[in-house]
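Lay summary

Proteins are chains of building blocks that fold into shapes. Our project writes down both the chain and a compact code for its shape. Here are two examples, one after the other.
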Amino acid sequence: MNSSVLNLPTLKSEDRNNNKWQSLYQIQGERKRIMRETCSKYKSNNRRIITPYHVSRIFVEDKYRVLYCEVPKAGCSNWKRVLMVLNGLASSTRDIQHNTVHYGNYLKRLDGFDHKGIYHRLNTYTKMLFIREPFEKLVSAFRDKFEHPNNYYHPVFGKAIISRYRVNATKEALRTGSGVKFKEFIQYLLDVHRPVGMDIHWDHVNRLCSPCLIDYDFVGKFESMEEDANFFLHLIGAPQNLTFPKFKDRHSNEERTTTKITQQYFAQLSPSQRQQSYDFYYMDYLMFNYSKPFEDLY
């Protein structure tokens, strides 16, 4: 039982005459169709049992009956703020600090419930995820974790990456793990014998949210965030004064990662590294209908 009995809330009768809502509703149908078709073509896990591991990234909002699968670098901080407001934990998204969002443990996760609680919510709540163009998401994660001081990613990932992939690394670089280059980061990502494990910030959406196992009702895209997010809030009957926040959560004075910025980073790689990176995220590209980011990819 991995699909919801409710599925996506249907449009209210007064919304059916609204071309904008009607069009957004059709877009949802199309996104879900492509996702399901990709799953049935490439995946054979239709009969697999959903375990707590599969739902460990899903946040629960019981008041409006929402399940949100967190995909880092695709608006997740602001989505958590919205869930906290829906839950009555804050009156406005503006009032919630970054650390409260990520380290406050105010939101429940689905794997914290027993088997019955997990299945009940999967079958009756509205399940949603928001995704982002895979290369753009990757560059956004790299800029955030490696181009700014970070007391976790530099010592844990940076040191291992520099010592494995940099020829003649300085003692200082090996000691601090700071200054990882994008090319070195990609070498780590594509290495089957990675010196350090995977991380949620650059893992596949496919692995984070198990969309072939869990039948999501709503698939939003970072690229059309405002429209998609406010449509979702409208569908679940959220308070009208609650809209999705537009502010950038961290390094707010820095330009958001765009297609142009992403291409500048990927231009540093060889064609074969670009191809391997595309292959690495191939299922995400296919499942969420993103076009190839470079013309020379096959």
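And here is the second example, written the same way.
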Amino acid sequence: MDYPRLTICFLFILSLITPQPVFAADVICSDIGNYTTNSTYAANLKTLLSSLSNSSDISSDGFFHASIGQNQDQVYALALCRGDQEITSCRSCLNDSSQAITKECPKQKEAFLFNNCLLRFSSRNILSSMDDGYVAMGYRVDDATDPAQFTNVLENLLFDLRERAASGGKRKYAADVVNYTSLSKIYGLEQCTPDISKLDCGKCLEAAMSEIPRYASGKLGAGIVRYSCHLRFETYPFFQLAADAPPPSRSPPAPPTPQSPPPLSTDTPGTLRASLLSCLHCFDYMDLSWE
């Protein structure tokens, strides 16, 4: 048994029960190669990540991509903020992430971090190329009282958000809220990195959606992260509807104000084992510190 991976997975499950920002679990350090502290690659990486502090290098959509250096010393970087973030909080998130990613991956030539923003760097060209590699999945332990109805409403919402995100032009982001019952709502968010095509965005989100019926069927909340896209749904508001979002098709209420998530159900040994089996199917793990 791979005990280090099992330990990370166990911490991943605990982080969903008690959400907290743990950068060490948010970061994936790749094993494609290492660099030395005083190398040209290290200097190029430092320069590239430092440029995130310059607001002019981040587009109005919260997207940043660039490369620096040549041959074996060339570094590629890609960064993306969640679509409802303002540029100030976006830049702050990326600055914190750039410090965290090099702290947790001090020698690796490739790393990935996802929190309320996404940051990735590599010695290989990762720009304008879709990568739907599975990163992590987390879900709440409580179930819908009417799983069939909940699943039907959720599927319609996620399919609609997928089409809207993929068709978003330079801004491949969509979020919405729909009625589940007269008293309950479902909030959903889907996003792709803007450098990939409409077709690739749709494929990435479709791959992410396919994990839900397999591992989170009937769950009241879940999040799936892939390198080029991510999605999340909850029964409480966790995002701000964008001011320029298209009119929702299913009569949502006024834009919600983000709030703390409801307490999750206490894990029983059986529930924890089931969650652990789901997590073990991943090839890598990270703490989904969504809030």
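What can we say about the second shape? The first strand starts at residue 27 and ends at 29.
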